[in-house]
Structures are given as structure tokens and as C-alpha cells.
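It would be a great kindness if you could assist me with a short task in structural biology. Thank you for your consideration; the sequence and its C-alpha cells are set out here.
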Amino acid sequence: MWFLTVASLGLALAGCSTTNGKLPTLKAGGTVPAVNLPVVCDRFLMPVKAPRVTSDSDSGEAFTAASDALDRANGRLSTARKCRADERKAYGAK
């Protein structure tokens, strides 16, 4: 039954908790505390398309396009990280 301990520890480390202050535990046939999170943060996690580069592309333009795409991707990840932190604060155990 070591997997139940590992699963319970995973839930505790993930910030899952019950309102009675006790750590959640998993039992055969038992229920797991759950909450439906909004999907608003997911829109920031969409992939950024790589710029098209061909053998005829100017190397400076290709570098700039790739750098811009990387900046957009990093900006999205940063925004998603902040969004998830707000979700944890709003939906976390009180």
C-alpha cells in the first residue's frame, strides 16, 4: 500500500487540503478532495509558432524572428505562472 502513502504525500505537496485542517488521504473506495479550476490560465499556455526560415532567408531577419517568438513564448509562460499563482491563492486551503 506504499502507493497510497505516495499519492497522499503528492496531494499534500500539491497544496490540496480539506477544510477540517487534516491532510487528505486516499482509501480504497474513498473520495479525493477536488475543485474545478477555471480554464482561464490555459489560454496563456498555447504554443508559439516558430518563424518560417528557408535557405533564402536573411540570417539577421531569421534571428530577429526567432528571438521575437522566444520573447512571446517566455511572456506567455510568465503570465501563466502568475495566473496559476493567483488560482492557488484563490482556491487553496484557507
In short: The chain has two domains: 1-33, 35-94. Residues 55 and 62 are 10 Å apart (CA to CA). The mean pLDDT is 77.
